[in-house]
Specification:
Blueprint lengths: L2 E2 L2 H23 L4 E7 L3 H17 L2 E7 L5 H12 L6 E4 L9 H5 L13 H8 L8 H12 L8 E5 L6 H10 L3 E5 L6 H5 L4 E4 L16 E5 L3 E2 L5 E2 L4 H4 L3 E4 L7 H19 L1
Parallel strand pairs: 1-11, 2-3, 2-4, 5-6, 5-7, 7-8, 8-11
Antiparallel strand pairs: 9-10
């Protein structure tokens, strides 16, 4: 019988801890922790994400600085805004909502965010520190996965872990976090040969490729821990993950649902990173 990993419950527990830490920071410093969000354009999904982030800040005692620029904003305008936030002592973390409009140089803009305010964990410095297993701000989604695995008491050391997907946002940092926790890690992608056989060797299987119901029961080892990072829409327009939940669940010891699994942890880990960044600034 499988156990469901409840991301909502883990997120609520962590947010309670974050709120306490934010209150202690305010007592020590005389100001609230600050998170600045930059949104360029009117992408509907991005607008929803930003609203959710602002709401989460309010609930945990973090001050949000919402900055909205039109789709037509120039490279110079976006860079000027980010530089002003970098120099603002009340801003502990800066998040530029991706994707940016196509005419903007995303790498140049992101490179302006200093490592100590990079609460997304995407900077070259933070990614490099993660690879070296040094203290750093870690990408929110994979960090959330690790928090859930540890909270559930799932053994990672010595286990075979397979990550399907090699994105800079999830796949690569996920693999590094598992490796740093002493798992033996294989990263699979669209060019991987014998994918099913590799997945069936996994004690911990993380799916992060953005293909609805891609992982089926014949890809899963009996008793495996299955973590579904995907958020997709099926043919009926309903949210579903990269894992065919109904097909796979009978093979698992633990499994995350979609929605309600990894998703709630992503914003929570953004708040967690912001608190960590603020505490280090003291």
């Amino acid at each position: 019988m499988y156990k469901l990993i409840d991301g909502k419950a883990h997120s609520a527990r962590l947010r309670g801890e974050i709120k306490l830490r934010a209150e202690k920071f305010t007592e020590k410093s005389g100001r609230k922790i600050g998170l600045a969000v930059v949104l360029v354009g009117d992408n509907p999904a991005s607008q929803v994400y930003v609203r959710n982030k602002i709401k989460a800040c309010e609930e945990t005692g973090i001050k949000s600085f919402a900055n909205f620029l039109p789709e037509s904003a120039t490279q110079a305008q976006v860079e000027e805004l980010v530089k002003s936030l970098v120099n603002d002592a009340n801003v502990d973390g800066i998040l530029v909502q991706l994707p940016l409009p196509a005419h903007l140089d995303e790498k140049a803009i992101m490179s302006l965010i200093p490592v100590e305010k990079d609460v997304d964990g995407f900077s070259e410095q933070n990614m490099g520190r993660l690879c070296l297993n040094e203290k750093c701000l870690v990408a929110c989604t994979p960090n959330g996965v690790m928090q859930m695995l540890r909270a559930e008491g799932i053994e990672i050391r010595g286990k075979n872990a397979v990550v399907i997907g090699r994105s800079n946002i999830v796949g690569k940092p996920m693999a590094m976090l598992l490796l740093n926790a002493d798992a033996t890690v294989t990263v699979c992608h669209s060019k991987t040969a014998n994918l099913k056989e590799i997945c069936r060797s996994a004690d911990i299987l993380v799916a992060a490729i953005g293909r609805a119901k891609f992982v089926t029961a014949d890809m899963v080892k009996d008793g495996a821990v299955v973590v579904d990072v995907g958020i997709n829409r099926n043919s009926e327009g309903k949210l579903c993950g990269d894992v065919d939940f109904e097909d796979v669940k009978c093979r698992c010891s633990y499994i995350t649902p979609v929605p309600g699994g990894v998703g709630p942890m992503t914003i929570t880990m953004l708040l967690y990173n912001t608190v960590c960044a603020a505490e280090r600034s003291l």
